[in-house]
Design a protein that fits this description.
about 475 residues; 7-stranded mixed sheet; 14 strands
Length: about 475
């Protein structure tokens, strides 16, 4: 199998590893557009690597945003290829000292809206404001929408602007006194690849799963295992990475409906992506779980992703994890106990990790968990850590190196000693609550209360997502 163009960070591209080759030079790597890639906090460096492999130079604009210059083809290519991002935005205007609504109106009115908005388009304006004198996001949205309509009236020489199709989403973001107006090219977040419309409990987003694989520094020549695979997202993302399958190939994007970008641009970008796919021979990727139902989902998802032949799913308890291979990579997101009745079993699983991982001394291990005492539990300090967010939950990806027998005189690899090792984890952010033995009746009451809060949360999620609120408290007044 030919692995040309593959690198440890996993940022594989249609043009190969070298951004300066002929294919890259002919792909429109520069342009007149300021483009922003939105990503989860902690993933900005991966987005920059991916952009670099595509031939674009990314730089940090702010937390969760990476700025680069590109042309219209860059919009198509980045939407198709970015694995760790949420969306691609066109930055239309920016003003550092935007302290009143008149300044905001002038900023929005100065945009060449007719370049982007076709007659008949339905224009939705989203907004958010943080530590700004213009603290009302709805008021900012109304100001931008009014300026936008007035500008289009002047550009089109008309008294009215009818809105129907396509839908175009504009965002006004106020951070302090800095105002940024963007146009969303993506639509539904890039984590929605199109292969996972069936999900089990606590699904891991696809772009976070891809980021975990890339951060693990796995290479396709090594075997790969996820011992808590659930509906298969991590092994599937690993297989797509190894096969160089563009993650956006099976879905559509809002900008495909724009008249500002010719259809041929998207046709060419998709053709480039199809030609870049590699064969899957020789891959060793496995996902294990104890739930037959989620394993059925995992197989269906792998089929839809085009990697069913590359990933082996099997029912296997974590305690029975083993391999005849001398080295490989484990990347996993173990359950963390959303329901109180599950927590005893999950605690036992965590306590068994040291023994299980020690059976695989040549394997590197990457574990995503919200537990701040994870290093204490397994009795070993991670060589690397990365703070990430699984939804609204702050987690840490703990990365442990495996032993290598191929390097002469290499020091013996650290082992997992469990709690007996008395490791004081430097990553611990706060002391753990003391373990309290609860009566069965108390557990039932706590379960009911937890379910009530979950019901409240279900109703609030759409509102929070619409307002882009990622941190809030849910109360039950009873």
């Amino acid at each position: 199998m030919n692995y040309d163009g593959r690198v440890n960070d996993g940022a594989m591209t249609p043009a190969g590893e070298a951004a300066g080759d002929e294919a890259a030079r002919g792909a429109g790597m520069t342009g007149d557009l300021d483009l922003l890639v939105a990503a989860r906090s902690g993933l900005e460096s991966l987005v920059k690597r991916e952009l670099s492999r595509l031939g674009y130079e990314g730089r940090g604009a702010q937390p969760g945003r990476v700025l680069f210059r590109g042309d219209l083809r860059a919009i198509a290519r980045t939407n198709l290829w970015l694995r760790t991002a949420d969306r691609v935005l066109v930055r239309l205007a920016r003003l550092e000292g935007c302290r009143d609504f008149d300044a905001l109106f002038d900023l929005a009115e100065g945009v060449d809206w007719a370049r982007w908005v076709p007659r008949g388009a339905s224009i939705h304006v989203r907004g958010r404001s943080l530590k700004s004198q213009l603290s009302s996001a709805p008021a900012c949205q109304k100001t931008v929408k009014k300026a936008l309509i007035e500008k289009l009236k002047a550009q089109w020489d008309t008294q009215t602007v009818e809105e129907s199709e396509p839908v175009m989403v504009v965002e006004i973001e106020m951070l302090g006194d800095a105002a940024t107006i963007t146009l969303d090219t993506t639509g539904p977040s890039l984590h929605k690849r199109g292969y996972r419309n069936l999900v089990g409990e606590a699904p891991l987003k696809e772009n976070l799963a891809a980021a975990m694989v890339m951060l693990s520094e796995w290479s396709p020549e090594r075997p790969f295992i996820d011992p808590f695979c659930g509906s298969g997202t991590i092994p599937i993302e690993a297989a797509m990475l190894a096969r160089n399958i563009a993650p956006g190939m099976a879905r559509r994007f809002d900008a495909e409906n724009w008249t500002a970008i010719e259809k041929s641009t998207w046709v060419a970008a998709r053709g480039e992506a199809r030609e870049a796919v590699l064969s899957g021979g020789g891959l060793s990727i496995a996902g294990y779980d104890i739930d037959d139902d989620v394993l059925t989902l995992a197989r269906q998802h792998a089929e839809r992703a085009g990697v069913a032949a590359d990933v082996h799913f099997q029912r296997r308890p974590f305690e029975q994890l083993s391999s005849s291979r001398s080295g490989g990579t484990i990347v996993t997101n173990p359950p963390w106990g959303e329901r109180l009745t599950d927590r005893v079993a999950i605690a036992r699983t965590y306590e068994s990790m040291a023994e299980v991982f020690n059976r695989l001394p040549g394997w590197s291990v990457s574990v995503l968990t919200p537990r701040t005492d994870f290093e204490e539990v397994v009795g070993r300090i991670a060589e690397r850590r990365r703070k990430l967010h699984n939804g609204t939950i702050e987690c840490t990806l703990y990365m442990f190196d495996g032993a290598s027998s191929s390097i002469p005189d290499e020091p013996a690899a650290a082992t997992f000693s469990g709690r007996a090792g008395k490791v004081e984890a430097p990553a611990a952010a706060r002391p753990q609550s003391p373990r309290v033995e609860l009566a069965e009746r108390t557990l039932r009451q706590a379960e009911l209360f937890s379910n009530r809060l979950a019901t409240r949360l279900k109703h609030l999620r759409k509102w929070a997502a619409r307002e882009e609120i990622t941190c809030y408290r849910v109360y039950d007044r009873d």
